[in-house]
Structure formats: structure tokens, C-alpha cells
Design a protein that fits this description.
Layout (H helix, E strand, L loop, with lengths): L1 H99 L1
Length: 101
């Protein structure tokens, strides 16, 4: 009777140990799945940030080109204005000289 009970206890201990190992394995598997999901989420976020930065760089480049173009146009207009002011001054001077005669 004692031997049968000892065998039964040993079997129950072995089953209990197997259940613990299975539970630990399931927990580790769940942790691995969670970690894989977190890693995938972090990678997706990093890729999205990278795409966003590329778009910002493209927009910055486009804005810089447009700013350069506008600056050149402004420079041209300022030169044209200066030329017109000089022509007007010459006309006024010529008119004054004609009026003085």
C-alpha cells in the first residue's frame, strides 16, 4: 500500500512539474509574442518617422528652391526699380536744364 501511494505521489509530482513547465513555456511563448509585436510596432513607427522625415526634407528642399527663386525675382525687381529711378532723375535733370535755358 505504501509503495502504491509513493508511486502515486511521484506520478502526481511529475504531472505537477510537467504542468509548471508547460505553464512557464506558455508564459515565455506569450512574452516572446508580446516582444515580437512590440518590436514590429517599433519598427513600423521608425519607418513612419523615416518617411515623415523624408517628406519634410523634400518639402524643405522645395521651399528652399522657391525661396531662392523669389529672392532672384526680388533682386531683379529691385534692379529694375533702381534703373527706373535713375532714368526719372535724368529726365528731371534734363527738364530742369531745358527750363533754365
Amino acid at each position: 500500500w505504501s509503495q502504491a501511494e509513493t508511486l502515486r505521489e511521484a506520478r502526481l509530482r511529475a504531472e505537477l512539474e510537467l504542468l509548471r513547465a508547460t505553464a512557464e513555456s506558455a508564459q515565455e511563448s506569450q512574452r516572446a509574442d508580446d516582444l515580437a509585436r512590440e518590436t514590429a510596432d517599433a519598427q513600423a513607427e521608425a519607418e513612419a518617422i523615416g518617411r515623415s522625415m523624408e517628406l519634410e526634407d523634400e518639402a524643405d528642399s522645395s521651399l528652399a528652391e522657391e525661396a531662392d527663386m523669389l529672392k532672384r525675382h526680388l533682386d531683379e525687381l529691385q534692379k529694375e526699380l533702381k534703373d527706373l529711378e535713375e532714368e526719372e532723375q535724368q529726365r528731371v535733370a534734363a527738364a530742369l536744364m531745358l527750363g533754365a535755358d
